[in-house]
Structure formats: C-alpha cells, structure tokens
Specification:
This protein has 299 residues and is mainly alpha-helical. The protein is 54% helix and 2% strand. Among the domains are: 4-33 and 42-51 and 96-172, no CATH class; 210-296. Helix 5 crosses helix 6 and helix 6 (135-142) packs antiparallel against helix 7 (144-153). The two termini are 35 Å apart.
C-alpha cells in the first residue's frame, strides 16, 4: 500500500527516501466469514500450516480459552480471564513465532525471512524511523487492531486520519466488525436470564436490556457521590481534630511551645491512616463496580 507522498514524489520524478521494498507482502484476497462446511472454496485450504494467519490462530485459541468452563457456570467460573483474576495464572498471552535476529544469509535472501524478522529489520529498528511503515505486514502479524494503532501514530493531521482509517478498514475487511462479529462475553452468558435474537445473525444470544443498564449507571453514580461525600467528611473531621487537639496541647506548659507541630504531625498521621483505609475500600469498590457495569459485550 503506497502513501500519498510516495505517489506524489514518483509523479514528479523524485525518488522517496522513505520508501522501501519489504519482502513477502501479504497477499490480497476477497474475504468472507469462515465456514467449515465451505472450506474447500477458500484459497489455501489444503495447507494447514499457512491457511490461518498467526493472529487468526491466536484469536481462535483465545476464544476457546475464554469460553471454556473450569467450574460451575452458574457462578460464572468461565474463561481464562477469570482464572487470571483469581490468580490461578499470572498471565495468558501468545508467544512469538520464530527468531527476530537477522544475519548476513537472511539479508542475501530476504524472501526466506519469517514475518518477525521482516518486521524487525524493516520496521522495528531505530534506523527505520523515517521509513514508511509496512502496515500490511504489521496487520498480518499483530492483527487489525495493532495495525490501526500504528497507522494512527503515523498520521500527522487528525483530519487526514478519518480518510486513512476508512481506507484501511475497507482494505482489511473490518468495516463494522464489532457490530457484526463481536460475541457475548462468556462471563455474562454463564448467568444471563434474558435472551434476544441478534438482528444480524438471527441467532438467540444473551441480552442486556437498556433499562437494567440505566439502573446500573444510576446506582454507580450514587456510589461515586457517596464516596466523594465520605472523603469530604473525613477531610472536615481531620481539620476539626487538628483544632481540638491543639486545645489541650496549649494548656500544657511543657508542650505549649511545640503545640502547633504536635497537632500538625498527629493530624497528618490520622490523615495517612484514613487514606490507606479508603484506598483499600476504593480498590475493592472500583473493581466491583467495573464488573457490575459490564454488559453482554461492553463495559
């Protein structure tokens, strides 16, 4: 995919120092939703090693892990994310395929480089900072979301990004992807009580009604307001404590000279204790509210 500046410079006969020939460009095909029953109609179906891109294989693996029940479905014990949350696992991520180091033999035959080596040599090195990004290679290895991110980083004017975004979305066949392809979260599906037909796929799916969503938003706002008021109450309480503690300190002849210091120090200690206690409460409450506010797909 050529940039407008490269096309302009080529038109007036000036070579672009930012252009580079990146080997093994990902092929371009017409695409459609995958169905196993129509596997024979897809190009490359006879080669299991290269039929799916690395990103697609990772997405399939994650989908299996995210929907697999490891306990009671009624208790939403579903998916790798829940296991990470319960600290059964520290993390879950896909590993890179192949080495990234490039030697002289690889430079002599760049077509034999693996995708990771190509990205490292033609994109991820400091010496390539002024070069055009190989967005199709980035998309092939990391997926569309990461590809869009780095494409956005390479845009100078935000107004130009609208056109760039639409162009890439059409080129990569991800127009309206979330609306058409996003599936309900397995944690929500496990204990969902309401279902509705998806207007696009006509499949019965877990449904989160707007009335329940509004009720949760209102309840969340009330919790936030209560916690803000609680903070204000504690601030006023610390100020009052500081003034009250000064009275007996000034009445004591031995402590009168340093009464202000003692009052300030004790008030600071009380304030520190309150902050630490409220921090634990905030952390627990924030997590509960975030999980409670999640819908069947989004937060």
């Amino acid at each position: 995919m050529k940039n407008w500046s490269e096309i302009l410079l080529k038109t007036i006969g000036i070579p672009s120092i930012m252009a580079q020939n990146v080997p093994n460009p990902p092929p371009e095909y017409y695409t459609c939703p995958f169905k196993k029953s129509k596997l024979e109609k897809f190009i490359g179906h006879d080669n299991q090693e290269s039929y799916f891109t690395p990103t697609q294989r990772h997405q399939v693996a994650y989908d299996i892990l995210a929907t697999q029940a490891y306990g009671s479905r009624e208790k939403a014990q579903v998916g790798i994310d829940r296991l990470i949350q319960e600290e059964v696992y520290n993390a879950a991520y896909a590993i890179h395929e192949g080495p990234y180091e490039v030697d002289e033999e690889d430079l002599k035959n760049p077509e034999k480089m693996n995708p990771r080596q190509i990205l490292y040599w033609y994109w991820a090195r400091w010496g390539c900072w002024y070069r055009y990004q190989p967005l199709d290679h980035i998309r092939y290895y990391f997926g569309e979301k990461i590809g869009f991110y780095f494409a956005w980083l390479g845009v100078t004017y935000l107004e130009y990004w609208k056109r760039k975004n639409a162009k890439l979305a059409h080129r990569w066949d991800v127009l309206d992807y979330e609306i058409e392809e996003e599936r309900p979260r397995p944690q929500y599906s496990a204990h969902c009580t309401q279902y509705a037909k998806n207007p696009i796929t006509d499949v019965l799916e877990p449904y989160f009604p707007p009335r329940a969503r509004v009720a949760r938003i209102i309840a969340g706002l009330i919790c936030v307001m209560v916690m803000v008021m609680l903070v204000l109450v504690f601030i006023v309480a610390v100020i009052i404590y500081r003034f009250l503690i000064k009275i007996p300190l000034f009445q004591n002849k031995l402590l009168r000279s340093n009464a202000e210091i003692y009052a300030t120090l004790s008030a600071a200690i009380v304030n520190l204790i309150l902050i630490m206690c409220l921090g634990k409460v905030y952390e627990t409450l924030a997590y509960k509210m975030t999980q409670w506010g999640k819908t069947h797909i989004y937060f």
